[in-house]
Amino acid sequence: MTIEQESVCGVKEQGKPETMRRVVCSDDCMSETVSSRVNTIVQYVDDEFGRKAELFTPIVVRMDRRKCDEFDATKKPGVYVFIHEEYGYLKVGKHLLNASKRALEHCRDNTNSKDGTIQLKHLLDSDKTYMLVYALQDLDFRHWVLALEYFLEKKLTLQIPAKRNG
Q1: Inside any domain, residue 71
Q2: Distance CA 125, CA 98 (A)
Q3: Residue 166 placed within a domain
Q4: For helices 32-49 and 143-155, what crossing angle results, to 10°?
């Protein structure tokens, strides 16, 4: 699937059941659990940021399928969220040049939970690990990347919270 053939992952805009928020997706077989988590995040962002949410394109990539057009589209400034089918929301982060590059550095460096039970290095090629990237579409609005990252860090219960937040 190419980016021009965006798939709709079933995210409805609040109060508008006839319209759908477009989410680019690399996996047509996403589990209900992961799909629900993605939908929750998209709804949170849409509710909080309103029309500013349109500055970003939400892209979901299954980590074991990173060789795809959707993954290439995440190589922009943006915010990433690692989501696991069993563990839930793992980690939120951002990069002002290339969101997926920074996300993969967490896997290379084996960022892990406080107790060490969740290690990103071991989840990198899992069919249960997904990365949702909010890819910024206009570089003049990079400041919104910072706001979105902060919002998601506070809104989601993360298995691996940012160290700067305690």
Answers
A1: yes
A2: 20
A3: no
A4: 120
